[in-house]
Design brief:
By secondary structure, this protein is α+β, with helices and mostly antiparallel strands. The chain contains 12 helices and 36 strands.
Amino acid sequence: MRTTASTFFLAGLTSLAALAACKSGEQTSPTDATPQPAASNGAPGAQQQPTRARKPPLVREGGALVRSPSEPALWLADEDQQVVRRIALPADAQNPPVAVKMPGPPAAVLALDDRVLVTVRGIRKTDDLASPYEGPGLLLVMRPDPAAGLVEMGRVELPADAWGLAITPDASTALVTSPWTHAVSAVDLQTLTKRWTLDVPREPRAVVALPDGKTAYVTHLARATLSRIDAVEGQARVKDVPFPAAPLRTPPDPARREAATLAYSAVLSPDGARLFVPRQALGAMGESAWNGQNTVDILSIADESPLAVRAPRWFVMQSKPFQKLLGEFGFEEADPHLTGPAPSQIGEVFVQPRAVVYRKKTRTLLVASEGTDMLVELDALSVDPSLGALRKYDLGGGNPEDDKPGATRCGAPTGIALSEDEGTAFVFCRSSHDLAIVRLDAFDKRAPYESSPPAIFSLGPDPLPEQAAIGRRLYYNARDWLMSGSYACAGCHPEGRDDGHVWHEDIRESYEEKGKYEPNVMHAFEDKQAFEGFVKGVPRQTPMLAGRAAAFGPYGWKGESPNLKHRVIIGFGLHRWLGGEPLSYSADKTIPRADAIVAFARHGLVPPPRDNHEKTAEEKRGEEVFNDPNVGCATCHVPKTDYTNRALVGLGPWAFDKARFDTEMEDDWKFKTPSLLYLAGSAPYYHDGSAATLEELVERNGKRMGHTDHLSKEDRAALVAFLKTL
């Protein structure tokens, strides 16, 4: 087995854990049911028995899966089948779950003693589960019912795409995030009224309320910085809280430290002193870190600072003194897989973190690793829990390269709930539509843990056609080496959207054909220390997929691929350390995989919610400007074909960041016209992300795309207003 510098630093984990402890102070087909309206129109408390004290909720953060505090049951928000399921415990195929239909896709569920809260992303007006949904988003307050499963007690309309959910300690207020409409809202659970809505940066996801009930933190899917909500129960206000990603492994470059994605979940320590956020640190350096590294970052609440602090000086792995030191210890003297400073992870600890819970009994964290079909247990007392796993529970099993595409016992783990004694974890497997029941390690030397496959409880068949269902499992799967280097499609395109990052794509001369240039490899940031000949690469912003993949072709920022299948296969080679050409030696395996992913992209990825309101006067004026031949927007962005003609258009010489990127090969500044659908939620803009907002894009455009330099200030604002409606 290859020994690397990563191994050299494993011994430091114990001391890091001790330091962290000191700082923190811690010692079958389901039965369908339709929700029935409640007989009473009173507040939620009207249904409770006044003689019985309410049991406190088991958790205060909602998720895809939670355990009930008042009965032996789990509640599951099944977004892909648009139902909430009640799963009786112990799970038994002879006692199938009750499925309660929702008005739209449910994102999170939170069980109180006598109520169940559900966030619904929007209203779906057809029975097609892959069809778009519309605003508003909803918070449903429901009452458990033995026959119906759930009875609706009331609903509150919220900004579209209602997703994350949490409650204050006194259970008086619910906090809800709306990712696509970049909003956070508060709901009074006594009166079922919305207290306030705040505008926040794009893609807010997890929300947690502090024990004082006055403050909450919100994570974002496309940045490292947190949003802090103050005065939750009063005149709420929002403030940015810097929260650098993986500070022990990331250079001090501000762009790298802010480059984080996939922060779907967050959890507080039991004493409320620490906030744990699993995510992907795109700027982190380490072993084969083409896409950064996974991390669990910890915020110390007392001083609102990262628990891990970067040392003033770094010991760079590729330096000559360090290589000499490695040789003395018997390690390899030069390792082209290492890209930066210590400490480094030992391989991938988890990939695409989707959910996290705190296990009080063992003071550990359980992270759902969506990409590797694993449940990973980490030391919650460590400065950086993600440097190494205490235990990995393999939920998927098998070898994805040898088995048929997408074969897994548990695909894309998405939600976690613990049993009452915390000895068992229940895991919702989204892409295979199963519930995994996992016996956990007690970390007791007197009773050593013996690994065994988890029990799998089927929640019914996938509603998609067979090929698209296989594509769903592949889309989230990072274990299949034929498709990528340990990062699935969902890593860069979460939910078919985009990560907001500008990647570096190397364009190199073909080894087989002199004078022909082709994409070779992709990386999150340039890595000058990696090895001789490594270039900075040209900038390529992540494109959105959901709702934009219907056309036959071409695809790619340069229109390199004649069709979507070709683009997927090219991606198989790009998305890995040092690149690769899987098609050249395994076409019989890569082509079926690509076909399945294309089927899922077109029939399974659900577009963001549309706001189909009557256009305002300003938006109507913007539409007139857009269609004006003298402005020329509609010449290339043709409304009848998803606002694109899919042709290459020359933009002229481009002012690019020479410190971070190479120039376009042969000074070719032609790019495929992108679709403008869902434009408002996919910043930044241009191929290189050089325009942070639509306002900036229109202001700086001049005569590059159409002619906007002659427009008045009012017409430019109207054009932007119209673009945001697409």
